[in-house]
């Protein structure tokens, strides 16, 4: 296994240099985007239009650095850009379960399944086969960085446990191969061998994609291919928790687990996407850019997403874990396939989140989906249409009012709909992207939607159900606040006819209940040499017969910083992780999903990691001692029942950037 992984790393590294040598840099102009972004403080109409034109024309003419943007589903105009930065702050959190601005629990091993803790409103209507249990690790369109760079940009990232049980390797290379045309390849491999029997993970993630802008930004194109594969050992957790909690043996491999080496889950998904936008405007060919007359944008997106999931085990009725065997009493090999084809066609009179001088903006159109779902028993397919519209007003360059609505016609989501409204007040006037400006945002909404498809239908060797649930209904509200790096997000909802998993399958709540959480965060600099990164969450559920959440969760990082002129920087710090005790959801291997339980409590454990971060010019390096307090505190560090977290271990990693 290790030899094959090393071969793949070598091939990936060779491909990285090959791509870098194959495409010479074509864009030679020296215009900078920074000046255009800095000029947005001007308030005159001519200045705003000049900024818009300058930003359009300089997309492919960066100088000395690289820029990127994330695409949003209804984004149409030239996006606001971020510069590539690799700060040392939180660099040592290589585990993506902890890298989000939210809280998640997992099964204790890097790269395995995790579950989001807390509530977030569902802001989209449409088919949803199931929640992705590997969402922290998979490549998606939403977490893809689209680059524009004059000088080729590359980044190498590697994490290791001194050759023992963890290897994370990632390489990214991006460059403009022609004026306005950028191509990027991003490859990631994760190999993790846990300290318990059959707690291993092997993942490969690849994406090849690009974006193109014409010189006048009249036409924009984004395209790409994403592939994710995962093979995860399913040991079912340890049989007797007391062997761990009382530390009766230091040899974790001797602790009995439920499933043998032959039990595993395999995931494979492919995504193909294309998005094109045409800007309808009249240029009077005058020297004053403010004479452009825009009539809006026509946009078209095309996506194909297919995945295959296989669950393999050799359990029998004598093992006592599963009670039903629908196909084979000695071995399971459950496979399901899902394919979704999605097209969107819509008109937009300006981006709803960018300030460009328009007082009123409109986006309207429709989404079409074709879904094919099959397993060992059935094959099902359907078509659905989703008309949608969004209307936005901007008042005095500080107040944003936005209303959105859509509904589903046909297929599994027949009769689904969503309506929401938000108002945001920005503390400062102007700025290219209003939604990024500091301010206060209030929103309310109402949605009626079908549960995840897997909760309505599922067939495997151990479980079979087919339900015709009532639609889930949510009345939700929220508040978001940001000011000088401080931010707060508060969400709450009243949920009716909520469908959730129990140990034997999904059930529907027989009455309504309320759920909410408040999350606050800040990366705080205390003077010139002390830093504190904070993330806190308070959660509440009115009826714990349907959902459990920890009352309080915390992630803190306290560090000292030692700068060495402009050449290097050293950080020495400690990370703290804590949440109050609660009945965390348990994990079901046959579903790759979590289910409600009220027998085992987890939490009320403090985890501490010591780390040292180094930055030497463009290379970042970390050394980390994980779970340093093992033996000093109780052995109760579980996130998921029967799946202990890591014992003390030593790890290191590096990120090395190349862009000259």
Provide a brief overview of the structure.
The protein has 660 residues and is mainly beta. Helices cover 8% and strands 50% of the residues.
- Calculate the terminal CA-CA distance, rounded to whole Å: 36 Å
Q: How many individual helices?
A: 6
Query: What structural category do the secondary elements indicate?
Result: mainly beta
Computed Rg: 26 Å
Structure description:
The protein has 660 residues and is mainly β. 8% of the residues lie in helices and 50% in strands. The protein is built from six helices and 35 strands. The strands form seven sheets. The chain has a 22-stranded antiparallel barrel. A three-stranded antiparallel β-sheet has the order 2-1-5, with no helix packed on it. A hairpin with a 7-residue loop joins strand 3 and strand 4 (114-117). The two termini are 36 Å apart. The relative contact order is 0.13. Residues 9-48, 50-54, 56-64 and 286-291 have low confidence and may be disordered.
Spell out the key features of this protein.
single chain, 660 residues, mainly beta, 22-stranded antiparallel beta barrel, 3-stranded antiparallel β-sheet
Question: What's the SSE blueprint?
Answer:
Blueprint: H1 2-22, H2 33-38, H3 45-57, E1 66-69, E2 82-83, H4 96-99, E3 103-106, E4 114-117, E5 146-149, E6 153-160, E7 166-178, E8 181-193, E9 200-213, E10 219-233, H5 242-245, E11 264-282, E12 293-313, E13 332-348, E14 360-374, E15 379-395, E16 399-407, E17 417-426, E18 439-449, H6 453-456, E19 457-459, E20 464-466, E21 472-483, E22 486-496, E23 499-502, E24 505-508, E25 513-526, E26 530-541, E27 552-564, E28 568-579, E29 586-588, E30 593-595, E31 605-616, E32 619-626, E33 638-640, E34 643-644, E35 649-658
Antiparallel strand pairs: 1-2, 1-5, 3-4, 6-7, 6-35, 7-8, 8-9, 9-10, 10-11, 11-12, 12-13, 13-14, 14-15, 15-16, 16-17, 17-18, 18-21, 19-20, 21-22, 22-25, 23-24, 25-26, 26-27, 27-28, 28-31, 29-30, 31-32, 32-35, 33-34
């Amino acid at each position: 296994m290790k030899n094959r992984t090393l071969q793949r790393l070598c091939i990936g590294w060779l491909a990285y240099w090959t791509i870098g040598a194959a495409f010479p840099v074509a864009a030679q102009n020296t215009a900078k985007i920074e000046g255009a972004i800095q000029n947005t403080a001007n308030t005159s109409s001519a200045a705003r239009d000049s900024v818009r034109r300058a930003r359009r024309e300089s997309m492919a003419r960066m100088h000395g650095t690289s820029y990127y943007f994330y695409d949003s589903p209804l984004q149409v105009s030239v996006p606001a850009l971020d510069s590539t930065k690799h700060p040392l702050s939180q660099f040592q959190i290589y585990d993506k379960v902890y890298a989000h601005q939210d809280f998640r629990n997992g099964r204790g091993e890097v790269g395995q399944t995790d579950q989001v803790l807390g509530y977030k409103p569902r802001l989209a209507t449409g088919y949803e086969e199931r929640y992705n249990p590997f969402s922290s690790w998979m490549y998606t369109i939403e977490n893809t960085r689209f680059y524009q760079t004059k000088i080729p940009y590359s980044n190498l990232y590697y994490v290791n446990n001194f050759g023992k049980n963890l290897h994370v390797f990632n390489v990214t290379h991006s460059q403009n191969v022609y004026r306005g045309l950028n191509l990027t390849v991003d490859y990631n491999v994760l190999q993790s061998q846990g300290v318990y029997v059959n707690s291993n993970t092997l993942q490969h993630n690849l994406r090849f994609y690009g974006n193109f802008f014409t010189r006048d930004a009249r036409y924009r194109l984004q395209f790409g291919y994403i592939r994710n594969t995962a093979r995860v050992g399913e040991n079912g957790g340890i049989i007797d928790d007391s062997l761990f909690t009382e530390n009766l043996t230091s040899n974790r491999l001797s602790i009995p687990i439920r499933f043998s080496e032959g039990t595993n889950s395999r995931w494979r998904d492919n995504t193909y996407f294309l998005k094109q936008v045409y800007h309808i405007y009249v240029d009077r060919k005058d020297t004053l850019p403010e004479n452009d007359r825009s009539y809006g944008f026509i946009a078209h997106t095309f996506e194909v997403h297919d995945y295959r999931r296989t669950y393999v085990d050799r359990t029998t009725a004598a093992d006592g874990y599963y009670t039903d065997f629908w196909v084979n009493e000695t071995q399971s090999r459950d496979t399901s396939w899902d394919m979704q084809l999605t097209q969107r066609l819509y008109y937009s009179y300006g981006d709803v989140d960018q300030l460009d001088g328009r007082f009123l903006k409109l986006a309207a159109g429709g989404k079409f989906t074709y879904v094919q779902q099959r397993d060992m028993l059935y094959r099902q397919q359907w078509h659905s249409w989703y008309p949608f519209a969004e209307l936005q007003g901007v008042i005095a360059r500080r107040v944003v009012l936005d209303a959105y609505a859509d509904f589903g016609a046909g297929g599994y989501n027949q009769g689904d709909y969503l309506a929401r409204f938000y108002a945001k007040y920005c503390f400062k006037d102007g700025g290219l992207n209003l939604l990024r400006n500091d301010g206060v945002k209030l929103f309310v909404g109402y949605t009626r939607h079908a549960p995840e498809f897997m909760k309505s239908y599922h067939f495997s060797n151990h479980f079979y159900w087919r339900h015709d649930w009532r639609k889930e209904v949510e009345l939700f509200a929220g508040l978001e606040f940001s000011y000088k790096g401080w931010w707060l997000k508060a969400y709450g909802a009243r949920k009716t006819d909520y469908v959730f998993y129990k140990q034997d399958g999904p059930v529907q709540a027989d009455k309504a209940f309320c759920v909410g959480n408040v999350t606050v965060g800040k990366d705080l600099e205390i003077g010139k040499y002390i830093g504190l990164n904070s993330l806190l969450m308070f959660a509440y559920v009115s009826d714990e017969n349907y959902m459990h959440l920890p009352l309080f969760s915390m992630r803190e990082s306290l560090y000292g910083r030692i700068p060495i002129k402009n050449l290097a920087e050293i950080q020495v710090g400690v990370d703290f992780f804590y949440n109050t005790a609660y009945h965390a959801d348990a994990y079901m291997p046959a579903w790759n999903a979590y289910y409600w339980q009220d027998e085992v409590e987890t939490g009320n454990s403090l985890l501490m990691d010591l780390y040292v971060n180094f930055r030497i010019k463009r290379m970042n390096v970390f050394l980390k001692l994980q779970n340093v307090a093992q033996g000093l505190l109780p052995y109760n560090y579980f996130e998921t029942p029967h799946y202990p977290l890591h014992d003390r271990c030593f790890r290191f990693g590096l990120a090395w950037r190349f862009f000259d």
